[in-house]
Amino acid sequence: MQTIYITGNDLTIEDIVKVSRENYKIEITPEAIDNVRKARELVDKFVDEEKIVYGITTGFGKFSDVTISKEETKTLQRNLIISHACGVGKHFSEDIVRAMMLLRINALSKGNSGVRLQTLNTLVEMLNKGVHPIVPEKGSLGASGDLAPLSHMVLVMLGEGEAIYKGERLSGKAALDKAGISTIDLTSKEGLALINGTQVMTAVGALTVYDAMNLLKIADISAALTMEALNGIVTAFDEKVHKVRSHKGQINTAKNMLRLLEGSNMTTNQGQIRVQDAYALRCIPQIHGASKDAIEYVKEKINIEINSATDNPLIFPEQEEVISGGNFHGQPMALSFDFLGIALAELANVSERRLERLVNPALGGLPAFLTKNGGINSGFMIVQYSAASLVSENKVLAHPASVDSIPSSANQEDHVSMGTIAARKAREILENVRSVIAMEILGACQGIDLAGNKGLGVGTKIAYDIVRKHTHTIEDDIVMYTEINKCEEIVKSNILVEEIEKVIGKLD
């Protein structure tokens, strides 16, 4: 059994993928268990002393000035969850739900939240046994944490709500019963500790960044195939050009392009056919590289967030302090995920421009719309339309969510991040980008065939052969969406990157 050990301090994006998509088990380390117990002891002490502490012996938000008696704390915590479960829309995929559960477990394991070990273990057990709460995508402002979606997660722990267990949609109670997990009764601080955090937006963003890092490599592969179909000039990728600017992503992209195209008989040098290429070819390192640098920045921010305590108030057992702060505010993630969406959108922008050069005989010199018998055949005409549609949709989606705010809780919570919206938009943009790049790859392979394949580069030949194993040169019009779907499945599987890296080493 493959296991990830949870400390609260050293979870990685790769760990998240292993747990959320590969069903690794998790186990909380003894040190983290000790930290959780110490924090809980302090909460119990304050409750016994009837000390006035936000979220422990008071109401929430605007009700923070309402004192709650010791006898009412269990009712308060249950009411918090059932009243806050106000999510709407379609529900998150199981991998995202598993990621948010893992991130909440990791945050609680830091020992600054004050939950009982029993409560934390229930969530661990749900994750390990595959009880996946139904969590609607919409309803979070991203600034008292992801209150609404996380409440849907916690409902199942109480035997309420709904969950997927072994492919079956069940009531929360039925799912727990089938998995052999007991329901819990929340006590002081626990409900707030479970839902007051950024784990939903961060789960969506972390998985999107992981997928984006793979897609960046495929974007380079796609661009390299188009370079060959259009006899692109590789001189522009000379490392001397990029070292005098020194952006890491740019340098790495130029290096990738030369490695992918090494040995190609389809590319040209400066002045051989023409002096220079259009920007969509010549500036591949600058454009792709900028997105790589942006996504690397987002990754750094996610690595901080996934190992942070983001609820309120925070418990500091060593100092016997409980401090009410604002770590639940999603602004660091909101800005990052808006940046992520913009960086991804640019990959599709330039990919579609390369596709246009492939289908437009005035620009690329290939047969119009990549078909030999134009007129009776439309070829790739509407493939470019579809790509253009997705690119324009991405421009709408890339509008920043974080520039918006709306007051809530009677203006007590008067600035919110909209970080969960930013993360969801970035995810949607990524899916559109994947489709556009699949269309470019399909078009580039068709262009190579029409240009006469004189011998491809060491990396691009591998990519071309994989694509042609599942598709073929299109002579006369066929149902195109099936070909696009085949190519998109190749992109999603990441087989292009895996097989190329076996031969030429890791792409940057």
UniProtKB/TrEMBL annotation:
This one is known as Histidine ammonia-lyase
Superkingdom to which the source organism belongs: Bacteria
Per UniProt, what is the name of the gene that codes for the protein in this document? Answer: hutH
Q: GO CC annotations?
A: cytoplasm
Could you tell me what reaction this enzyme catalyses?
L-histidine = trans-urocanate + NH4(+)
What does the record give as EC number?
4.3.1.3
Q: According to the entry, what is the taxonomic lineage of the organism?
A: Bacteria, Bacillati, Bacillota, Clostridia, Peptostreptococcales
- For the keyword Magnesium, the answer is no
Subcellular location as annotated: Cytoplasm
Associated pathway: Amino-acid degradation; L-histidine degradation into L-glutamate; N-formimidoyl-L-glutamate from L-histidine: step 1/3
Q: How is it modified after translation?
A: Contains an active site 4-methylidene-imidazol-5-one (MIO), which is formed autocatalytically by cyclization and dehydration of residues Ala-Ser-Gly.
